[in-house]
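For this section, I looked closely at a protein sequence along with its fold in token form, which I now present.
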Amino acid sequence: MAERRRRKQPENYFDYSLLFIVLFLLGFGLVMIYSTSSYEANMQGHSSTFYLRKQVMATIIGLAAMIVVANIPYHFWERFATLAYFGSGAMVLMVLIPGLQYSANGATRWIRIGGLTLQPAEVAKLGMILFLASLVCRMGRGIRTTKGFFTVLLIPMPICLMIWRITNNMSSAIIVFGIAALMLFVASPEYKKFIIIGAGGLAAVAALVFFISQAASSEGMGFRSERILAWLDPEAYANGKGFQTLQALYAIGSGGILGKGLGQSMQKLGFLPEAQNDMIFSIICEELGLFGAIAVILMFLLLIWRFMVIANNASDLFGALLVVGVMGHIAIQVILNIAVVTNTIPNTGISLPFISYGGSAVLFLLIEIGLVLSVAKGIRLKDL
């Protein structure tokens, strides 16, 4: 009798599939970072493993943080939701402080504390997920009202504007707003409002692109306007804003079906700027071909599927929204990165999650994965 009672007790769930996919992407990313960055590191006077060693260190710290977060009940973080929102905003403002700000490749988007460099935009993504999950749960049915709907939609705007204007990082601002929009979409049954807002946004973007394309020249325009013109006709801007896009397209086209072979890329030899960062997917296409590119996309699709499974079976709304926020962050970033590399949208700096070089990005992505694993552990399984 005691044995039967023990057998019927609910068991904790752990998503080993999710963990395997994340570890695979991390391992694959390290291989590709070494393959992509070794030449540039040598040209800068460093060891060929310079970028690899820095990424390995960030990955180890991130994995340790993931394990710690995964073993803490996710409701523990709910009490810090408001602090996460205002704290991430304060970190973005710290980029303005001369003693803390850190610049690289002509952009000032980081802060340096001691020997550590941190990108506040990555903190803001995690902070927004925590705050909106908590806020939606507190609002309850109030989110169905027009006031509640637009309150949640406008909450991320101050952070997005600070990221855009202070760090000059529009791509991260778009991702933060996209996370908020997806979480609101899942929590709210008012799909008609999303259709109207989405149609209005697309019409505004189309009108802007049309206006810029009709301009006689790009003189006097901002660099983002030049990027749109380079997107429409990259060959006309081959020596300027279209250079990186063209080199990425050359890499993709030369890879063929099976690729040139791991480590055999030509575009990474000084032709493609920032190959180990935003454009690493083009090197994957060149070295591993269409086969490798599809395999990477399939792994991300599997990762998103695991997020959906966990969100659908989460024990409460707060846990489900945390998972939806993380899913939105990764899905939006993957879609935008591949769209930029293939010239589907104008070029903007967006890294490929778990694969592109970047310590702050991989650290906070792994913390988010820890939150998802914590939610998954809250799922109870019962013997039927």
Residues 136 and 143 are 7 Å apart (CA to CA). Residues 23-59+222-384 form one domain. The chain has a mean pLDDT of 86.
